[in-house]
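Field reference: sequence -> structure
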Amino acid sequence: MYEHFFRCPYCWEEISMLVDSSIRKQTYVEDCEVCCNPIEVTPEFANNELIGFQATDIEQ
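Structure field:
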């Protein structure tokens, strides 16, 4: 597992999420630990190193 810090697209607080580095590219939804809004998270790994990360809001 890899811990990545980023800003929530809703409340702009810095939060962290654990992402699985054994999966090269994935997309899933996880709630912000501060404001509880759903964030679509897309991490991308190469050789177990994070090479891309996108966190976007989900229009509700």
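Note: The first strand starts at residue 2 and ends at 7.
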